[in-house]
Design brief:
Strand content of chain A: 35-45%
Radius of gyration of chain A: 16 Å
CATH architecture of chain A: Roll
Largest interface: A-B, 28 and 28 residues
Structural class of chain A: alpha+beta
CATH superfamily of chain A: Hotdog Thioesterase
Oligomer: homotetramer
Helix content of chain A: 10-25%
Number of domains of chain A: 1
CATH topology of chain A: Thiol Ester Dehydrase, Chain A
Largest sheet of chain A: 5 strands, antiparallel
Strand order of the largest sheet of chain A: 3-5-6-7-4
Number of strands of chain A: 7
């Protein structure tokens, strides 16, 4: 698939479609091993599994940075929107990497961009986004992003 | 994605966000049982699992209508784009339903809209879309949609 | 595991192998819908997924009977042993049923036998067991089974 | 949990229970990354997921050794029995390892023993077995193990 400088392409109907991105589009990389069950009946990693990679990249980066305590924290991130474009098939037993970048930090929300790469590949095999809204664990109502989280997110922008 | 005024909302930044849709937005409904492992560490069905519901609703409807033979068919649908907005949490052991509608049929692609409902609920707890491009199984190159598939899709529009 | 003569078979090496069981071997049945991703690269429901059915049947029955509050309960069941024998392949989009029976209630443990049936089939396509040890949620140490649980388990024996 | 030299322990009822094994019990190790969704509502890796690790260790070792072509091979391994004992909880984002050993090679079947370790840990957090019967892909009937496979299995005993 060819991609123009703005990383989109026109299809027959005139609408734009996302195109692969290079490694430089991401700030943090997470290694991922694949599993036999990731391959569906067509022998490729199923579209659903990419979202597990997204989820893992985001939460893993936050836990590693000390910005998420999913067992005891008073505020937790609820997912309100996810999206993925798939450019090229991947398959178990390939090793993969997720690239992660914080694209937007709002009052109580964060938008992450994530790219999935065959390990060491120059361009994403798939890419998408993932939006968290932070809520109070007890009430489920949106809250301001915790200060420490905002600092961690700043390092991923 | 364009949204009509009554199915979107403005957030603080002025951009529009999708809103829940009623049952009448979908043409075909598929019952779904949930599983213990669908609930993640927060006790709700994880965002990833909704895409398994999408996948299941689309492929299940096609198989039921005799429009998909995933073991022997010469052409298969590859997923090129998926998207989901989440409005309200769901949790095992709730029973669910997926609503399905064909939104666009192109030369070699199909766009499905899917809504996830708590069983019998009037509005989607989550909704999104799913785009298939049909390819030749051996070469992986896009092909025209099979005639029988186009007929089946017409009944879901 | 001891097997009675009519539910086992001898293989070439002289050891006994479990054999399918009839519906009468179970006390409680749980309907299960299958998912596209349950099918692995061979086009059958993957061996892993059966354990998700086991987990779902056990926890679902307990929640339904008011014997498990997984969000707030002081005691929770930790899984210490699981086992499955597979007799015949199943595949999405088949509808399934899990049959459940309590086989042993100990001081702090419960052993469940579970059978997976194609919906309405007379014999298990797979069957196995699942052992819970009840622990204090805070300390992780074994505790006596809660009284209400013991009563519910008695109805499943 | 204490374990005797035969790697089993007696419980109150007099039956023996498997106990953890050291790294020396396995011949081949496979690194595994965990995923957010592996953690269930109790915040630990769910019992089901261990079988995905088993499946991945076995099939990954065979593919790496050139002994499994899951897309085009004439003979494939069907799983007929799996078993797991769980000794200590694990949780995302821990890195893990699967240890693998071939325990028995029959005419058309193979029994693998698998141990799951926290990365670098001296003893299994869980361990079990996994039995493959090789069948003709087209007929589903058992066949003799392919010669190259037998050679690969010999190196894992």
């Amino acid at each position: 698939m060819k991609h123009s400088s703005d990383h989109s392409s026109n299809d027959a109907s005139g609408s734009t479609r996302p195109a692969p991105l290079p490694r430089s589009a991401y700030r943090h990389f997470v290694p991922l091993t694949t599993r036999w069950l990731d391959n569906d009946a067509y022998g490729h990693i199923n579209n659903v599994v990419y979202y597990s990679f997204f989820d893992t990249a985001v939460n893993g980066a936050l836990i590693e940075a000390g910005a998420l305590d999913f067992l005891r924290g008073d505020t937790i991130g609820f997912v309100v929107e996810t999206h993925c474009n798939y450019f090229a098939p991947l398959a178990f037993p390939q090793a993969l990497e997720a690239g992660l970048r914080v694209a937007h930090v709002g009052g109580s929300s964060v938008r992450y961009e994530i790219g999935i790469f065959a390990s060491g590949a120059p361009e994403t095999a798939a890419r998408g986004h993932f939006v968290h809204v932070y809520v109070d664990r007890a009430t489920g109502r949106p809250v301001a992003l915790p200060e420490h989280l905002v600092k961690v997110l700043g390092e991923l922008e």
